[in-house]
């Protein structure tokens, strides 16, 4: 299932939502492509979606949940990829 939180995260003069899949990254990437979200919007385990795309994501079937539910779903399904873990993988492979 695709989940999205309300656009309340400010950056670059806009508000943003987090878009995740509670199933797989493949499902997330496929949904983001259908939404027209650029791949550069992917950040380890979620896409950052600008507020103006939020209604389209919901129309396409994303379920609105709280930000806490976003994080809980990622951890519950083993999809959470914290920034520090990504940095550790980079240093280990160097």
What characteristics describe this protein?
single chain; 94 residues; alpha+beta; six-stranded mixed beta sheet; 4 helices; 24% strand; globular
Number of domain units = 1
Through-space gap between termini? 35 Å
Contiguous uncertain segments of 5+ residues = none
Percent helix, as a range, is: 40-55%
Number of alpha- plus pi-helical segments: 4
> For the CA atoms, what is the radius of gyration?
13 Å
Biggest β-sheet, characterized? Answer: 6 strands, mixed
Structural class: alpha+beta
Tell me, what's the shape? globular
Describe the structure.
By secondary structure, the chain is an alpha+beta fold. The protein has one domain. It contains four helices and six strands; from the N terminus they run E-E-E-H-E-E-H-E-H-H. Strand 4 and strand 5 form a beta hairpin. The radius of gyration is 13 Å and the shape is globular. The mean pLDDT is 88.
Summarize the model shown.
By secondary structure, this protein is α+β, with helices and mostly antiparallel strands. It has helices at 25-35, 54-59, 67-76, 83-93, and strands spanning 2-4, 9-11, 14-21, 42-43, 46-50, 63-64. It contains 4 helices and 6 strands; from the N terminus they run E-E-E-H-E-E-H-E-H-H.
């Amino acid at each position: 299932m695709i989940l999205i939180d309300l656009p309340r995260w400010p950056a670059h003069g806009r508000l943003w939502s987090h878009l995740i899949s509670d199933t797989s990254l493949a499902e997330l990437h496929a949904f983001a492509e259908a939404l027209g979200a650029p791949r550069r919007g992917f950040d380890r385990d979620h896409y950052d979606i600008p507020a103006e795309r939020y209604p389209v994501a919901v129309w396409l079937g994303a379920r609105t949940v709280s930000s806490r539910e976003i994080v809980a779903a990622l951890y519950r399904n083993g999809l959470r990829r914290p920034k520090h873990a990504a940095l550790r993988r980079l240093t280990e492979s160097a």
